[in-house]
Amino acid sequence: MEITQSITTEQTLPKRYKNEINRFWQTGTFSSFQGVDDIRINFAIFCQANQHKNLVIVPGRSESYIKYQELSYDFAQQGYNIFILDHRGQGLSERMLDNPHKGYVNNFEDYAADLNTFINTYVLPHCVEGTKPYLLAHSMGCAISCLYLAEHANKIQAAVLSSPMFAINTGKISPQIANGLICFTSKIEKIFANTACYFPGQKNHDFKAFEDNKLSHSQTRYQIFKELYQKEKSVQLGGVTTQWLKQAHQIKEKIFKQLNKLSTPISVMQAGADTIVDNQAQNEFCQQLHQQLPQQCPEQKPLVIEGAWHELFFEQDQYRQPAIAHCLAWFNQHSQ
User: Which candidate, 173, 154, 141, places its Cα nearest to that of 67?
Assistant: First the structure.
């Protein structure tokens, strides 16, 4: 599907951020609801009366919806109403520990339950009778979305998973050894600590210089994201706790056990040079999902954006444009 000229580019982005994107953002509805265990979940909605396509955006770890202003604007220009939430323990949503920088969740299923409440209460009522929303998720948001879709596949028309976090990239350490370290650290914490602790080596939020980041090649988009988080300090999040990491390492097994329930049309986009998540786990997901449900992942593999880093929607235009084009084409292919 061809992208219209309204999609932003790195060259035009600074000016459009101050003008069109800022005006668009002012039209949003910003509110919250009480999620699992009465934790406040913040969200944003952008609806136009003449648009009947609805898109749920599910962010990744440490992200806030304020980071998604450009992407929300771009999809709104393509005719979509936008619905996006901040996960518990991050963004503008309520933190669950005394130190708000600690990345924590009790259970990944809590994320999925919050997403279900959000879609039921705030998204589905906007859908014209007989239509369903589309879903676009990034990284951790993909794992959350798979847990959700396994239980509620009939509520979503089609989904795109971008750089999905089915497994974390453990580098030179094997997943088995990494899991052993996590379990050992968790046991020690239960004996000696009365609150969730950072996993060894993790710390409070600290901006990396652009030259040291492994998320995006785009200095323009990275700088905008950095300025947003510096201005709105309440959205800043540090490293992960042992509990979060323990949950993250269990997520692949949970998702793969439920592949036969993922009947929503799903496409996976892989960042070819990703060092944050395990791309092999994405390959396995597509192969096994296709075996379970032949209509899924038609080519039995992800769409690979060669050379791209983890954050496809905040990357240089050469990587971002094909990613958005693929999303639009997939949603159009499965239009209602």
Answer: 141
